[in-house]
Amino acid sequence: MAEWSLRIPDQLDAARRAAESKGRTAVLVAWDGEIHGLLVVADVVKPSSAEAIASLRSLGLKPILLTGDNEATARAVAAEVGIDEVIAEVLPSDKADVVRRLQAEGRVVAMVGDGVNDAPALAQADLGLAIGTGTDVAIEASDLTLVSGDLRAAADAIRLSRATLRTIKQNLGWAFGYNVAALPIAAAGLLNPVLAGAAMALSSVSVVANALRLKRFR
User: Which of 90, 95, 155, 173 could bond 55 through an S-S bridge, CB–CB 3.0 to 4.6 Å?
Assistant: First the structure.
């Protein structure tokens, strides 16, 4: 309102500050050169959001709230769900710059978003996760799409990816160890071809069985 040199009445200004302190967005309404009213809008925080943030923390991750909302609203929402670091009042075009700055600090950045203005940041992040209920642009820019609109799926996806990587390393270790142990024996002519074939089949079965354990992931 300062841009149009409009003075906010004290009563409306107090109501605006009170609304923003509760995590709501206040919109002032003016006509004929004077401010006459105040509209208060708010995004409802999903009941599962706090649990999702706690799950991400348990994985050793540091959640950051990156938003275009004003500072007071952003901090109120962050406090409600358990986020300590807030980067607010960021223009859509600047979100990718914030991700780049975090990467320049040596951080590996995963970005979760659902809007058109999140697309550049999703593409810039080391891992972009789009909410399946969001826009097509965000989904196209992301590396992974969470089918549900529940943020807890982000923590589940990271846990599953870590379990998958751990299984891959185990299988590679087993296959490498098996070959290192068996090759000298075979080269010395001490390993019967039939036994060698059976051992190779057993090795393959072991690798597949270990990978199938991922089906029990919850």
Answer: 155
What domain range includes position 165?
157-216
Q: What is the CA radius of gyration of the chain?
A: 26
Q: How far is it, in rounded angstroms, from Cα 119 to Cα 123?
A: 6
Provide the 10 A C-beta neighbour count for residue 29: 10
Task: State whether 33 and 79 are in the same domain.
Answer: no
What's the domain count of the chain?
3
* Domain boundary residue, one of 126, 149, 172: 149
Spatial distance between the Cα atoms of 51 and 58, rounded to a whole number of angstroms: 11
The two tokens of residue 202 are 């057993």
Q: Does 3 reside within a domain?
A: no
SS3 (DSSP) at 183:
helix
Q: Is 204 helix (H, G, I), strand (E, B) or coil?
A: helix
> How confident is the model over 14-61, as pLDDT tens digits?
998 888 877 788 888 988 888 889 998 877 788 899 999 999 999 999
The alpha carbon torsion through 7, 11, 16, 21 (nearest 10 deg) reads 130
For residue range 57-106, what is the model confidence (pLDDT) as tens digits?
A: 999 999 999 998 888 888 888 998 999 999 999 998 899 999 999 999 99
Residues 56 and 99 in one domain: yes
φ, ψ of residue 50 in degrees (nearest 5): -60, -40
